[in-house]
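Hi D.,

Good news: the full-assembly prediction came through. Inputs first.
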Amino acid sequence: EDKVVQSPLSLVVHEGDTVTLNCSYEVTNFRSLLWYKQEKKAPTFLFMLTSSGIEKKSGRLSSILDKKELFSILNITATQTGDSAVYLCAVRGTGAGSYQLTFGKGTKLSVIP
Amino acid sequence: NAGVTQTPKFQVLKTGQSMTLQCAQDMNHEYMSWYRQDPGMGLRLIHYSVGAGITDQGEVPNGYNVSRSTTEDFPLRLLSAAPSQTSVYFCASSYSGTGLYEQYFGPGTRLTVT
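Then the structure:
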């Protein structure tokens, strides 16, 4: 059974801080790892990672995957109140269906002014 | 493109009632899925479909039925609602053509069963 564990479950930081969110996984025949941001609505896609050691970057957000150690991190630099959200990590393997994503429980990030 | 649409946005049911949550996408995606999201539980897969006429169970399928008669629509049926089905339901679709399988989510349906 595929499994995704995110840590911490919640985090409170001040504006301007840098945060690192963690995602570890166990998956049958890993295909990709995805990060989503969820505010009070549907998850929106941030990154997809398939190769180890290659950083994906979008503005103040970046993510990297370590396929040997089976984890990924999501970094947010110079945090803003608009970054407050639940960040979801998901993995896609070939377990029961190659289209399926297995999600972690999420990290709730609160950025206070 | 409207993307992925879901109706209704909110619904209150009594225990034992049945209803259908609607999901449609206009992106010609072959893969569609239904998730439920409960506090502290993340997103859990209920059912999914890899194309018209093909459906399969996910992690938490009990109490739910699906069908996929067209590429665009993927309704989720609650057969006899129970309080344990109180949740937020998300429909998602994705396309394999780019190899990315990025999932696009609908806005969600908040269901309360009393």
